[in-house]
Amino acid sequence: MTNQEPLDLGATELPAEEEARLRREHDLDRPEVFDRRNGVEERARTRAALLPEEAESGSADPQAQAREVLRDSDLRTEVPESAPDTVFERRESLD
What we know:
The chain is an all-alpha fold. It is built from five helices and no strands.
């Protein structure tokens, strides 16, 4: 079972119009479409095997946990502005 709540962009500095455009463009208000387009369900089946550090703390629902990890990763890839604190600054070695 997948979550049908709109996907959360987190805190951004985007103007409301830009955020609305991004939500439409990336199906963020239709998580079932976002998931289908990105193959989240299929990928979650293989990702649901817990990593050692995850197994140590356990998981009540590894499939749901995997879906959320994958959604978050896909969202940050598709909409880099959704995570302004994680944008890498590119510098030359001489800088």
